[in-house]
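Archive transcription. Copying these from loose printouts into the bound notebook so they stop getting lost. Printout 1 of 2:
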Amino acid sequence: MFESAKPLLRLALPALMALPVFYASQAVAQAYPDKPIKLVVPFAAGGTTDALGRIFAQAFSQSIGQSVVVENRPGAGSAFGIDIVAKSPADGYTLLWGSADGLAVLPAIRTNLPYNAEKDLTPITLFAAAPFVYALHPSIPAKSVADFVRYAKANPGKINYGSPGVGSVAHLATALLETRIGIKLTHVPYKGGSQAISDLISGQIEMTTTSPTVILPFVQAGSISAIAQTGQMRSPLLPNVPTMVEAGYGDFVVGSWFGLLGPANLPDGVTKALKETSERIKANPELQTQFKQVGADLMDARSIDFKAFIKDNIKMWKDVVSKAGIQVQTE
């Protein structure tokens, strides 16, 4: 009798040994979170990423009944803050409010990052996206994309455009415009977007790529013109500015995006709990309004593989970098 039972015992033993691990994982997930969560925003306070991260943190905190503390850790184009999260314990108490800048663009333009965006993080959920606006100084005689293309082709290299810096999403979104419509612009990198806007208003540069929120008051005042935006649909902040799709560039949809990530090897139960809560708070009317006021649209990420999404974005931006002849940074 006992001899005949041995094969069954051998088959059952691995499963029995795994039970403590399974139940321990379930217990951790059920108890989570039992202390405050730190949300790292890898940019300085006051910008779009920071504003959205704080709105998210407040709504998330209210939903789970636990504090979510925003910690700004700017530096190296967001690489510094991302690396902090990548090297944190995988317990769900240090999370990243990440964006396209550090998760897709930097990996496309830098080979010396201290983290691997595809391997060192656990993508939890894609939360929101924000389009860009191509803005011009009134000295450029263009009221539409077609006008701009004609003028730019007649004046190659004479239009100076400002960006928040080399390798920023705004920089590459303008490089994409150049390669897509066959024009040549001159890049003027700044250490932030605000100085680019100031110089655009004063006429030191002729163009910049920025967010609807930033550009809105200047468009309303007539000091800057907006010829197109890059979202799938028009931003409600700029209902009279057409999209690139409407301008005849059917698949020209690009912008920044924002999501929640943790360190690699985050427990499945914790990841699931964070994703479910993130999706649930998107139904919060106050959060929806606040995100729209900052110029971002919430995304239904329930069917989106965030990990694959990041991989595809890195590939896309690497292609833009190659076609635009942008030098990849190796040091």
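Printout 2 of 2:
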Amino acid sequence: MDDISGNNPLGNDVSDLNADMLHAVMELVSDGIWDWNANTGFVYRNPGWYEMLGYPRHSLENNVFTWENVIHPDDYPGVMVIFDDYINQRAPHYQSEYRCRKKDGSYLWIEDRGYVIARNPDGSVGRMVGVHRDIHSRKHSIEQLQKRNQSLEALVAERTRELSRVNQQLQLQLDENRILAEQDALTHIANRYRLEKVLLEECERAERFRLPLTLVAMDIDDFKLINDRHGHGVGDETLLRVVEGLNACMRNDDLPARWGGDEFMAVLPGTTLDAAKQAAEHIRQHIAQLPTLHDVCVTLSLGVAQRHRGESAAALMRRADQALYRAKAAGKNRVSE
């Protein structure tokens, strides 16, 4: 409440009010009323003040030290700042919430309001009255609400972390599924699906920027004979050996892929027919020079085709496949265009 000592023409009359009469009125009020005569140091506290804190009536010293001693140590500095600002006229009113120690040692939240009703000629406080009001239930409710909010926030945070973990796991699964969908199960190079997808993209890119693009079709010579004589286990080992050799001959931008069975293709972006034929010959020689596996000598037949302007991916694949058949017809283990 505001300091009324300076703007109330009856201020002196109020300060001179018979203390016994004023205190008699205070005895009837249930709230904790206090009356501080700063000039004498005497502090009157009504029965409601004592009952609020669990003390017998008028059982404590009637001075400001009693007030200071019941304030919670953690709250004391802040209360004093607010109190000093008010009595020194740096703040328009005095109101503070803090904890007071009860007789049983526990602490009670109270709201303390007060105002100066008289000042001395030098401006210092002459007399000040105020009220302590029990706000413990309200504070307790607020604390419980804050704890519930914190618990809810913690729960939300945990659920958010859990959802993030689930999303990461789902993303990893999606990535893995995407890889599996575009990867040959045995050789782990690109499968037919990815080959068609990449070839289509490269055809569009070659058309857009007028770049050369070459496709190499490859087939393991006499692979059926290898399976028939040595079994599918050796056949699988042969496929893996060929893929290992293919990977060793590929550039970073090239894509080797298993077309199906013992047939492979390689997409060579930015590569002319002559350069692709050289690359295909290098692949043929590299495979032919691999150490024998179970007395099996492995060779490749290769067909090379460079994309024509406006040619579709399917048409390019047909021409590369036709070139491969020409290599087979010419005696195998060779490159044809």
